[in-house]
Amino acid sequence: MAPNFSKFVSRNNALAAGGAATAAVWILLSRKRQRSLKLDRRKVKRAIDEEVKYFISEKKENRVKAQVDKQFLKQLGQLLKIIVPGWTSPEAGFLFLVALSLVTRSVCDLWMIDNGTKIESAIVSMDKQLFKKRLLNFVIALPIISVM
User: Fold this and answer.
1) Is the CB of residue 138 less than 8 Å from the CB of residue 119?
2) How many domains does the chain have?
């Protein structure tokens, strides 16, 4: 008589067997992946060690470092004469506007930081009126500052 496995194969048993098989396959694949990563890490570590040894043993040449000295200022002056032909030229105006916008932006950033700190202190002190006042100042100043 042929073996009868229908008694052993029920819905619950099939789900349990499928889950166990899936878990076994996942465990085997994760172990294989971990082994390959360990090998890769070892190779990478060896390569890094070799590079570090190379950089440590490498002798640095005496290089001339950039300095702000008389020669630098002289070269900067020569460049400015080329870039800005005269103080009444459009280039000088653009240079002045760029410098002015950078300074204005820095001042606005400092004001925003200060105002944010004041808003936080009003929150911590739980003063609703002071919080509303400082938040209103912040909201009013946002469109003006966004232009910078």
Assistant:
1) yes
2) 2
What Cα–Cα distance (Å) separates residue 97 from each residue in 85, 89, 90, 93?
17, 13, 10, 6
Boundaries of domain holding 53: 12-58
pTM over 0.70: no
Mean pLDDT for the chain?
Answer: 79
Do 90 and 136 sit in the same domain of this protein? yes
pLDDT exceeds cutoff 70 at 41: no
Q: Is residue 88 part of a domain?
A: yes
Contact by Cβ (8 Å): 115, 137: yes
- pLDDT at position 7 over 90: no
Task: Please name the residue ranges forming H helices in the chain.
Answer: 11-57, 70-83, 90-125, 128-147
Residue type for position 68: V
134 burial level (CB within 10 Å; 0-12, 13-18, 19+): buried
